[in-house]
Amino acid sequence: MNNPLISVIINNWNGKEDTIRAINSFLNSSYKNIEVIFVDMNSEDGSFEEISKIKNVKAIQVGANLGFGNGINFGYKYAKGDFIFTCDSDVEVGKDCFKKLVEAAEKNPGISIFAPVEYNREDRKTIQLLGMSIDFLGYPYPMHHKTSLEEIKDEKIFYFSGSSLFIRRKVIEEIGLFDKDIFMFAEDLDFCWRAQLAGYKFKLVKDADFYHKGGAKVGDKKEKLTYNVVRKRYWTEKNLLHNVLKNFQFYTLILNLPFYFCSSLAEMIFFLAQGKPLVSLAYIKSWLWNVKNFDKIIKKRREIRKIRKVSDFKLYNKLYFGSAKLFTARKEVVKVLD
Fold this sequence. Notes:
Strand content: 15-25%
Number of helices: 12
Distance between the termini: 32 Å
Helix content: 40-55%
Low-confidence stretches: 215-225, 331-338
Number of strands: 12
Shape: globular
Largest sheet: 10 strands, mixed
């Protein structure tokens, strides 16, 4: 096995204990040729002061909370690795995770984006993610709902979570990293969508163990839950529509947008009936953002056209046939190992 350098980029906002736990797991990995790039986004819990003292960690502080994607983008400026590994602050890698990822990459030179199996950090027999798909409206569908680890087919995977992306540098050099206009939610979907359009292949490394606590911070504890729900709904709807308008070809948009808006209107009526008008208003605000930034979206479509090698039609076999929103609104189904 060769010994390529892995740049592990982890960003943090007021998650000191989780971040230290994650970094310790990186440094204790059986694979030693790694550089850990820690990006602190204006934390107020002493994260930067403590973590910057850890040996073999490149600590960088920025003056604001940039969101997940932009934090990773900032860290990438300092990365020297042949492979880039992006992750959340509340994760932990198995002892041989990086080793297994490198082995898979060397055995599969034609594949450029990998991910380990993502387990629950606190209950390590529970699988959280095995890869993701989307429906025709661009909404995420977790593949572990109906597919077991043994049944996962790499050619069916549409994207991986940004919490555990293992990427060849050449991919980022061609298509860029995360979209700077996505503060939180669906930035990983957009990145992988662009990679799919550029013809890059994906692989789930089934013997690489990775653990994720989950539950990203949306707001601080002082904020009301209702406010956080509204803000999360706004970001989710804004980014999903943004991704659809960017990445689908024109003929697909003509077919899909009427269903998208009809579905959203039905959801707005549902929330109004529940006495949650602010959630319904979040949909309208998300649409207005995309209208206001439509000229920017058009420019992004032109950039995507330059790298596109795969048509929407060829990606249809990766999509979930049904409404992912309706499916995931039901009780979560998880896979528990014996």
